[in-house]
Amino acid sequence: MLEEEGAVKVLTVPGKDRILGVTIVGEHAGEVIAEYAAGRWKQAHTSARALTWLARFHAWRRGGGSRPSPGRAHAGPEAR
């Protein structure tokens, strides 16, 4: 039987995205913490330029926004 019980509490500054603290309780809390920490590490080690380019690329792939610079974007299925 799969147990899906636990709780996550996130304390933030009102009106801001800054996380002040997190409480995670449950059987697999360690896995949740590891995934969160890996995501925060990746976010902290990704350049603003790369994030801007990726946002433009995904907007373009969804049919809106400006097209990424020529020759730098992965050709989608419709371009093949």
Structure characteristics:
alpha+beta, elongated, 80 residues, 2 strands, 2 helices
Report low-confidence residues grouped into runs of 5 or more: none
How many distinct helices? 2
- Mean pLDDT across the residues is 79
Radius of gyration: 19 Å
Total domain count: 1
Spatial arrangement of strands, main beta sheet: 1-2
**Rough outline:** elongated
Distance between the termini: 46 Å
What percentage of amino acids are in beta strands?
Answer: 15-25%
Question: N-to-C SSE series?
Answer: EEHH
Alpha-beta classification: alpha+beta
Total count of strands: 2
Approximate helicity band: 25-40%
What profile does the largest beta sheet have? Answer: 2 strands, antiparallel
Explain what this protein looks like in three dimensions.
The chain has 80 residues and is an alpha+beta fold. It has one domain. The protein has 2 helices and 2 strands. It has a two-stranded antiparallel sheet with strand order 1-2. The chain starts with 5 loop residues before the first strand and ends in a 19-residue tail after the last helix. The model has no long low-confidence stretch (mean pLDDT 79).
Topology:
Elements lengths: L5 E7 L6 E8 L2 H16 L3 H14 L19
Antiparallel strand pairs: 1-2
Give a short summary of the structure:
The protein has helices at residues 29-44, 48-61; strands spanning 6-12, 19-26. The chain is an alpha+beta fold.
